[in-house]
Structures are given as C-alpha cells and as structure tokens.
Write a structure and sequence with these properties.
Oligomer: single chain
Strand content: under 5%
Order of helices and strands: HHHHHH
Number of strands: 0
Largest sheet: none
Number of helices: 6
Length: 317
C-alpha cells in the first residue's frame, strides 16, 4: 500500500508537469483497476473472517453442549450403578426369605408328622402356626412390594438405556458436523491462499510496468529541465548581446551628432587645450551617464533574479 501511494503521488506529479508543459495526457488505468481489486479483496477477507468467527462460535457452543451431555451421562451412570446395587441387595434379601420359607415348610412337615404323636401340644403348635402364617403373609406382601419395585427399576433402567442410545446418536451427529465444518474451513483457507497468490503476482507485474513508465517519465522530465535551463541561459546571453548592440548603436548615433555639430578644428583646439589626443577626447566624450549605468545594473540584476527564479521553479516539484 505504501508503494501504491508513492506511485499515485508520482503520477500526480507527472500530471502537474504535463499540464505546465501544455501536454494533456490521460492517467494510466492500471492504478484504478488495482484499487478496485484491492477493495474487492478486502471485502472478501472481511466476509471470510466473519464466516470463520461464526463457525468458531458454533463449534464452541457444540463443545459446551457435548460437555453438558457427558456430565449428564456420568450422572445417569452413577444412578444406574446405585440402582444395580439396590437390586442386588434386594435379590439377596429375597433369597434369604426363600431360605426361610423352605425352613418353615420343613418345620410344617415335621409338625404335621408330630401332630399325631403329640396331640397335647396341638394348641401350642397351632398358635405357632398362626404366628408363622402371619409372618408368611407379611413376607408375601414384602415380596409383592419388592417385585413391584423391581419392575419399576427395570423400567427406569430401560428408559435410561434408550436415553443413552439417543444421546450417543446425537454425539455421533455432532462429531460428523464438526468434521464437516473443519473440512470446509480447510477448503476455504486453501482457496483464499490460491487467490491471494494470484492477486499478488498480478500486482507485482502491474507495479513493474508502472515503475518502467515512471523511469521513462523521470528521464523525460530531466531532459525538459536541462532544456529549460539551457534555453534560459541562452535567452539571457542573447538579451545581453542585444542590449550591448543597442547601447553601441546609441553611442554611434550620439558620436555622429557630436561630430556633425563640432568641426574638426574645434576638436583639435579642445585636444590642444586639454593636452590630449583626438582619440582620447572621443573616449572622454563616449563616457556614459550615471543614469544609463544604473539602468544597465538594474537590468543585469533583473536578469539574475529571473535566472534564479527559473532555477527555483525547476528544483521545486
């Protein structure tokens, strides 16, 4: 971007110089194309960054959901383990009760066998039997309650299994979605890298062409500067030559007028009086006035100022 800005400044300089020289040239089109391409690339990069941010947020939310479900699964597994322990304990109790039942049945058999031989002890045995019957009824009720609880726990176990299966399916689906999003991300990154490489190559080629054009324009500008400098010097020199010629012509006219006014005899008399030759007297008469010398100095200083102004303009941008 810095190189682009430098190139734009140089192109502006070129336009300014071309306008001052009276040459109207169109600005090169590649810079506009490069600006458009750079803007499009920036828009594409912003869109890609937004999509990446959205996908990262979705991945984070999915990870959080997976963690919550894993925690729920651990809790359910702990509950299932507790239920299995309770069921095992109740099974042990049922086996103990069955053993007690078997013992009681054996006792009943023995009592029935001893009824015939022990009629005196019938009342006591009948009371014992009634008590045992009551205990048996209570045990049966307990058995019924245990069977009901067992059925309920079995139903809970089946429900928990179904929920676990459903959650496993959801987890598999989420994992597949995460894999698909990662694949899409990699594809987008590869496509973006390829496009960026191609655009970088195009920009490099365009910059090379612009640099060549700028070198040519700088050479032409330097030639124009040298031309202007030499032209200004030649103009000053020619003006000075013309001024000297004009002064000489003015002097010759004055001398002719003086010679026409003065005769040769008067000139000789003046030379004899002054003890000077006629040529020296002519040189004395040729002396310029102070006003003319001041004017010549002012004109010479103005020419110098003009040259300095042209040099400043050429040195400036």
């Amino acid at each position: 971007q810095q190189e682009k800005e430098d190139l734009q400044e140089k192109l502006k300089l070129r336009e300014h110089l071309s306008q001052t020289a009276g040459k109207s040239k169109a600005t090169p089109a590649p810079s506009k194309n490069i600006d458009l391409e750079m803007k499009q690339l920036q828009c594409k990069l912003k869109n890609l960054n937004n999509e990446i941010i959205k996908q990262s947020t979705t991945i984070k939310s999915l990870k959080n959901e997976v963690q919550e479900k894993e925690e729920r699964i651990w809790k359910l597994q702990a509950k299932i383990s507790q239920l299995e322990r309770d069921v095992s304990m109740k099974r042990h109790l049922i086996e103990d009760l069955k053993s007690h039942l078997k013992a009681s049945q054996e006792n009943e058999k023995t009592s029935n066998e001893t009824l015939e031989s022990l009629e005196r002890k019938v009342k006591a045995l009948t009371e014992d039997c009634s008590g045992k019957k009551a205990s048996i009824d209570s045990l049966k009720q307990r058995l019924n309650v245990a069977t009901k609880e067992k059925s309920q726990y079995e139903q809970m176990y089946h429900k928990a299994k179904d929920e676990l299966e459903k959650k496993d399916l959801k987890l598999t689906k989420l994992e597949s979605k995460v894999i698909e999003t990662e694949c899409a991300m990699t594809e987008l990154e590869t496509a973006a890298s390829v496009q960026l490489h191609s655009l970088a190559k195009q920009n490099a080629e365009a910059l090379k062409t612009l640099q060549k054009k700028l070198l040519l324009t700088s050479e032409k500008v330097e030639e124009f500067k040298t031309f202007v400098k030499t032209l200004s010097r030649e103009l000053q020199h020619s003006i000075q030559v013309l001024r000297t010629k004009i002064k000489k012509a003015k002097k010759m006219g004055k001398m002719k007028a003086c010679k026409n006014c003065l005769s040769q005899e008067s000139v000789e008399l003046a030379a004899s009086i002054l003890n000077v030759s006629t040529t020296d007297l002519e040189e004395i008469l040729d002396i310029e006035d102070e006003e003319e010398t001041a004017k010549t100095k002012m004109e010479f200083e103005k020419d110098k100022e003009w040259l300095q102004r042209i040099q400043k303009l050429m040195e400036a941008q």
